[in-house]
Write a structure and sequence with these properties.
The protein has a 6-stranded mixed beta sheet, with helices on both faces. Strands 3-1-8-5-6 form a 5-stranded mixed beta sheet, with no helix packed on it. The model has no long low-confidence stretch (mean pLDDT 93). It starts with a strand and ends in an 8-residue tail after the last strand. β5 and β6 form a beta hairpin. By secondary structure, it is of the alpha/beta class. It has 8 helices and 18 strands. The chain folds into 3 domains: 152 residues, Spo0b-associated Gtp-binding Protein, Chain: A (Distorted Sandwich), CATH 2.70.210.12; 168 residues, P-loop containing nucleotide triphosphate hydrolases (Rossmann fold, 3-Layer(aba) Sandwich), CATH 3.40.50.300; 67 residues, GMP Synthetase, Chain A, domain 3 (2-Layer Sandwich). It binds guanosine-5'-triphosphate (GTP) and magnesium ion. Guanosine-5'-triphosphate (GTP) binds next to α1. The site of magnesium ion (MG) has 5 residues, from α1.
Length: 421
Amino acid sequence: MFIDRAKIHLISGKGGDGALSFRREKHVEMGGPDGGSGGKGGDVWVEADPQKNTLYDFTYRPLFKAESGENGRAKRQTGACGEDLSIKVPPGTLLFKDGKLVADLKTAGDRYLAAHGGKGGRGNATFKTAINTAPHLSEKGVPGEEIFLELELKLVADVGLLGFPNAGKSTFLSVVTQARPKIADYPFTTLTPNLGVATAAGRTFVIADIPGLIEGAHQGKGLGDEFLRHVERTRVLIHLVDVFGFDGKTAAQNLKALNKELAAHSKRLAATPQIVVATKMDLTDADTALAGLRRLFRKEKIYPLSSATGKGVKELMMAVVKALQTAPEPAAFTPDVMDIVIEPDYKVEQRANGEWSVNGKKVNTLVAVTNFDQDEAVSRFQNILIKLGVEETLVKAGARTGDKVSVSNHQFTFRPALKHR
Ligand SMILES: Nc1nc2c(ncn2[C@@H]2O[C@H](COP(=O)(O)OP(=O)(O)OP(=O)(O)O)[C@@H](O)[C@H]2O)c(=O)[nH]1
Ligand SMILES: [Mg+2]
C-alpha cells in the first residue's frame, strides 16, 4: 500500500552507567578505584534507502529505540557503546519537527541525525584526585533523547504525468514502461501515484503517474491537489489532454484550467517545463479536434499521441529526452530556518503550594547522572548547584531552610550550605 505521510517517535540510547569499584589484590588492604565508565548510547538516524518506496512501514510501528550503552565495569573496563539505529525511508522523504522542515532526504544515502545517544556515566576511577584517592562516586549514563518527527514523501521522478481524469495517463505509462497501473474508462481510476522506468534514445528515466486533477483541485475538489507534490521534484511534466475534452468541456478549456490549478498549487510546478500532448488520436474525428485545439494554442507545440496504436509515442519520447537534457536538476527543499533557542542552565519557580522547582537542560542532566544513594555523589550534586548559582538564586527568590525543592524530578529539603547575606 502506498502511504506518503507518517509520524514516528524516536528515542536514542541511554548512556551506560559508570562503575563504582576498587581493585582487589592479594596482600593489598585497599586497592585504588578502578570503576570504568559507561558506553555512549546509540544515535538514531533516518536514512534514504532506495529499496523503499512508501512510508507504509510506519503506519503501525511508530516507536524506534536505539540500544543503550553498556555499564562500565571493574578493572577500568569501559562499557561498549550502544549500536546506532538507522531508520530507512524512501528517497524523497522530507522530515519535519513541530511543522518545520529539518531535512530533505532526497537521494539514496542521505541521512539525518535525529536523536543523539546519551553520554556514558563516569566510573569512580575517573574521579580520583590527589585529595580524594578513593572516590565512592560514579555517574549514571545520560538518558536518550526523545524526538517526534513527521515524515512526508515527495516521490523522486524525472518526468511527471499530469492531466484531467481519464486523459490516458496510466495507459501511456503502461506503454512506455513495465509498470502495470490500473486503467479504466472512468475518472479517478488511479488513486495513488505509480512509478515506471522508461528507456529512450539510450536514456533511462523515471516517470510518475498521479491521480487525475480537476478544476478546483487546489480547494480539495476531486482527489484534491494532494498528489501534485509527487511531481514537484520532476524536471519535465507531460501534460496529457483528451483531445475530445472531459466532462462537457473542450480540450482547450481543460488545458487552461489545469495550468491554473498548477499555478495555484506551487510556483515551482508552474515553472517546470511542460510538454503538451493530445491523447486518443486514433479515435474518429480526432484530427479535426486537434486542429481546433491548435488554433487556440498557436504558440504551444502539441504532440499527437495514440497509446492504443503507438502512433506518436516515439516522437513524444524523443521530445522528453531532449527536454530532460536541458532541464535543470530540481534542488532539494531547504530546511526551514530554526529559531535558536538559548536555554538557560536552569529556571527557578515557586509553585502555588510554596514548593520550589528548578528546571533546565543542565540541571536536569545533572539529576539524571547523579546516584543519590552515594553520599559523595550527593555532595557533588550540591556543590555543582552552588557553582551554577542555583542555591543563591533560590535564597534570593525567598527560599528558606526546610522548604521543599525539586530539581527536575529529584526532591529534597532545602538546606543551603553557604551563608547568604
Ligand atoms: N482509443 C484510445 N483510448 C485510450 C487511449 N489512451 C487511453 N485510452 C482509454 O481512456 C480511458 C482512460 O485511460 P487511463 O489511462 O485510465 O486514464 P488516466 O488519465 O490514467 O485516468 P485517471 O487515472 O482516472 O486519472 C481508458 O478506457 C483507456 O483505455 C488511446 O490512445 N486511445
Ligand atoms: Mg490513471
